[in-house]
Amino acid sequence: MQMSFSKRTLSNGLDVIVHEDHQLPMVAVNLWYHVGSKNERPGRTGFAHLFEHLMFEGSEHHDQGYFPPLQRAGGLINGSTNADRTNYWEVVPTGALDLALWMESDRMGYLLPALSEQKFSNQRDVVLNERRQNYENRPYGLAGFALSAAMFPPDHPYHWPTIGSADDLRAASLGVVREFSQTYYHPGNASLSLAGDVERERAFDLAEQYFGDLPAGPRVERIQATARLAESANLVLEDRIELPRLYVGWHSPAMFAGDDAELDIVADVLTHGKTSRLYKTLVYERRVATDVSAYQSSREMSGVFQIVGTAAAGVGLTELHSAIVAAVAELADHGPAEAEIDRGVAQTEAQFIYRLQTTGGFGGKGDQLNAYNTFVGDPGYFDADRQRYRHVTGSGAAAAVRRWLVNAPSVSLSVVPKGRRDLALPGAVEVRVS
Amino acid sequence: MSVDRARLPIPGPDRPFHFPRIVHRTLANGLALRAVRHRSVPVASLVLLVPGGSSVDPQDRHGLVSITAGLLDEGSRGQDALAIADRLARIGGDLDLEAGLDAVVISLTTLDRFLETGLELVREMTLEPNLANDDFNRIRNLRLERFRQMKDHAAALAERAFARALYDTHPYGHLAMGSDAALNAMTVDDTRALHAAMFTPDGATLIVVGDRPEDELLDLAARTFEPWRAAASALTVDRSAALAAPPSTPPVALGVVSRPGAAQSELRIGHVCASRSTPDYHSLLILNAVLGGEFVSRLNLNLREGKGYTYGVRSAFNLRRGLGPFVVQTSVGTDVTAPAIHEALREIQAIAGARPATDDEVAVAFASLSKGYPRGFETAGQVARSVAQLALHNLSDSHFEEFVPRLARVTSDDVAAAAGRYLKPANMTTLVVGDLDKIQGALPDLGLGPHQVLTVDF
Q: Which of B2, B9, B370 sits opposite A99 (nearest CB)?
């Protein structure tokens, strides 16, 4: 199964990808900028995401807010920022495609003249509220920050969270916006996809019409950074929670790199569904944990493989840790059984097909085409991506576990209720996160 | 070709969208079947709607419907939960067991080639669950642990306290998950009695959506579910319990759940309002879009884009079989808690009085709700869940086709009238989950009377 597409690159460097699907009278516009929080510097964290907010506050030729004209046209609109990229999308009725492209191109080319100190400080307040709501005021909300900070050294771009530090956000100034925009927000650092109810040639014509005369920007140098843990770390973080939770993280391959698919399947085998090894042992049989999950969180430069378990009331994290270590060692020695791999691959296959159901929005076909184009340089990578999982073998998975998990240092983070550091792994060193 | 940047392009006409045909069949056992052909990717979705959600929980057994629904995939026909999970995984099945206030909804999405297996799995789970004591204890413990965790979750505290403040002992006054005490008092026999009483074919609806002729979908569903028979039960469930009248005046005007050191204040503002059967349904949708249903609504433009008090604020008319609430929900900075409440109340008062929705606002709301309407019917799962809403609320099959024309007839006068009739600023309950010491100094300025400190029991 394929996701059909056509791709052309405009003379200013903008990649344009078109996918026709006439099931609904809607078109999904999706625009990726290859910039994220990894392009920030220490002391200026959170800026890529704050910039995303400013993109919704109007541009030179329509300085009245991004939402109203598109919402009046029946469009759905959103955007998001992570470490590696920033994406923006509209899903609009077919007749409003011109409008969406006018709006996207105007803010790509003409954002700066419309920016003001007032917009900037308002959106900084909004982002500080977002940070409080989604992280500070949420149980275990700061654990991810602590884990990343321990996995990566302070100058590594994956050290800090995309939302940024509250102090950096407060210190951010409008002056940095200009530099940031000129460096990263231009056609040569972007990928546009149009998916849905639009004919291919018309889609390319419209892309040329609206984006073709925007100037090409400077070439963006790819950031290269590597991180290794010199030795394992054992940390504890106090939080306003009732049940202690253990996070174990290892460095792992970048997305689409060798062993990435193997570790995805390993994560499934460990914690996906009741039949998975750790769920079955810890939650179903021994009932010492309330939940357990594992992910191969792969990003552009490198990944983190993590296993997270929450202890049942009265159970110490040592018991969870031992079970996790034992399950990983078992996989390293013997690999997953064939039936486990079959099950994992069957689920992955189904997920690939489910992903073809939605045209627009986060994770829709337009978003996937841009993801493949941005990270692999090939929008048609869908099927190759899927094939990676078909090729996973038991011995390959075992080798990946040995290479990345068993023979490598890890970070263990115990998150415990305030004043209950006795529930952490023995010898854990306290960390603070703000 | 270059662009005219002096003006925005004017959108062209909409291409027509038609909701696909819904084909009906009723089985001899009373089960209603619905089939829709959906031509897209080879994926099929089925939804089994069993009316009577947590609102039929017995008074001393809050959470019974939810835990019973949660046990459906924990083993059936003598096979244990692991065997069921393994069969589901092998078909890449995406199963959801949802116990809502008005119904239990069992949804499964699978690849088209596994539709027969998917139907059989749903049949086994729904009709022949083991409801074994050991599984009951395991799942109950997981839920008790979940309660412990929710005590630290501001939004979870707010949901629970707000439902209680508005509805008290009415069936909508407790959340589907129930409470610690009720779960502890329950036995597996309660779940067996509830299962026999509530999971009956008569009144239930099974919807199958996939890329096959409707008759084939219906034949498959009929063959699988024809043997379903109601069982005898010591329990009777009152599926109309939620239609009882809630308290006419809210017991709480201004309530605070104290959370010392909270990073923000979680807010809920609203009152008991209307049911899904209201003849003013379309006017309420427009009203809500103007007030707080969208990014560009008055509440969000004021509290977020104007004042920077919050990451976002939304309002909703949560229309149910019984009278559901109107609610504004947001999370705001601790230091701006009182001003945020003041602004939210001011917007509600204004739209219900001095500053009703204008023609232009109504036009924007109509355009937004109507032009984007087809988006909701893209996947087989979306189509199946939409048809389930028709069944739950006794709406006609033409509901989706008539939606846009009916919405188009709503005038700004209709919206003003609906605001006057359905929004009761003097009857609002305002609930704050936040740092009481830091916010209480400013609360008297709101003129809502003394605040009540609420405790939340799980």
A: B9
Whose structure tokens read 């355009």? B367
* Interface contact flag, B11 A99, Cβ < 8 Å: yes
Q: Are strands A6-9 and A15-20 parallel, antiparallel or unpaired?
A: antiparallel
CA distance A93 to B13: 9
Alpha carbon A96 to chain centroid, angstroms: 29
- Write out pLDDT tens, residues B307-326: 999 999 999 999 999 999 99
Helix locations, B168-296, DSSP H: 180-185, 188-198, 214-225, 281-291
Structural domains of chain A sorted by starting position, each given as residue range(s) with its CATH number in brackets: 6-211 (3.30.830.10), 233-430 (3.30.830.10)
- pLDDT per position as a tens digit, A321-349: 999 999 999 999 999 999 999 999 999 99
Q: Is A274 on the interface with B (CB under 8 A)?
A: yes
A242, A280 in Cβ contact below 8 A? no
Residue B44 near chain A (CB below 8 Å): no
DSSP A178-194: HHHHHHHSSGGGEEEEE
pTM recorded for the entire structure: 0.95
Q: What is the Cα–Cα distance from B276 to B316, expressed in whole angstroms? A: 13
* The CA-based dihedral angle spanning residues A378, A380, A386, A391, taken in that order and rounded to the nearest 10 degrees: -60
Chain A with chain B: Cβ pairs closer than 8 A: 221
B111 touches chain A (CB under 8 A): yes
Question: What ipTM score was computed for the predicted complex, to two decimals?
Answer: 0.94
Pairwise CA distance, residues A372 & A30, whole Å? 13
The answer to whether B145 contacts A126, with C-beta atoms less than 8 Å apart, is no
* Residue B267 DSSP SS3: strand
Query: Nearest C-alpha of chain A: how many angstroms from B57?
Result: 25
CB contact under 8 A, A129 and B333: yes
DSSP letter string over B17-67?
--PPP-EEEE-TTS-EEEEEE--SSSEEEEEEEEE--GGGS-TT-TTHHHH
Domains and CATH numbers, chain B: 23-237 (3.30.830.10), 254-453 (3.30.830.10)
